[in-house]
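ok so i was messing around last nite and threw this chain in just to see what happens. nothing serious, just curious
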Amino acid sequence: MSKLIKIVLIVLVSLIVSLAAAEGLSRVFLDPIDFLKPTRIPDPVLRYAIEPGTGAHDAWGFRNKSVPAKADIIAVGDSHTYGISATADDSWPSALGKMRGETVYNLSLGGYGPAEYFYLIADKAVRLGPKYVIVGFYLGNDLRDSYNAVYTVGLWERMRKPGFSASASDGDDAPGESGAGLGEWLAGHSVFYRLVSSSFIGDNLRQRRRLKRGEEIVMFEDSASGVKTGFTPERRLRGLDLEDPEVREGLRLSLEFFNRMNMLLEGTDMKFLVVIIPTKESVYAEYIEGNKSLPASEKIDRLIANEREVNAEVKRYFNEHGIAYVDVLDALSERAVSEQLYPANFGGHTNGNGYRIIAETVNAWLEKGE
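result:
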């Protein structure tokens, strides 16, 4: 019995030492901010936020090493500006900073929309005295996010239209609630644990789980072009269907918020720019629009048609109100054949290649104005 206890202790000690060594090596070669799960907390205006310092996020709760005293550029947005599906270093704000040799502070979080963008610019961005404030406007769900924010947060009550009632839910890219238990603790504190769990589970398993829950995912493969990826037209259409009064109201509110952002920065040394970010479906419209062989082809066509209408209305409003913008749809579509810009599964966020193209497009616009 004594010998058995010794063996067990030796095994336990060896295991602990091995895990500690693995964690140490993981932190040497990997950036904790790309793996550790931050803690989500409620916020009376933003609806939710990241607890400062958790998940290797900065003192303001955003995906940066630290909060600078001053920044050349502030990027504000949702998960498509935060940089989901890529490392923090490969997000488009970070890529833009490297291209320009300037400090770019990323003030973004998944599930945020124009209401949160406006509030963050007024509350935080202006403190850093940037030359540019650049907002990523993701057409896929920002309209719905505007509606959700205005009809659930008291601060925006005066913007509500009579006849509408709150039926809001978190955006589909919002970070999940922080739970309890050993697994949750490890997710927030161990890079090695997150590396192993993420790698072993993988996007394919997560996709199978979504399919099992009944979510509609359309897979597409074109041997001639080499395009292979998946789409979620039903999910995206929920955020862009202009026949839905809530989406139409969200469009009105989004445009009003962008006008407020622009007016806030007028007369200052800070320039305002909106980056219009398309859905994955619109980027690959050449291959999937009108393709009757695809499941849910009618939804795909409706989605792309609605997005075109929203895109045109947004640009018309921006032109009328003197709001500077750059649309990255053409740049992404042109490169979608020669480069893998999205995961080969249901994921709707670009990878590092796609974020680089967004940064290049934004940088080209900035250089023209300098």
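not much to say yet. Residues 2-29 form the longest helix (28 residues).
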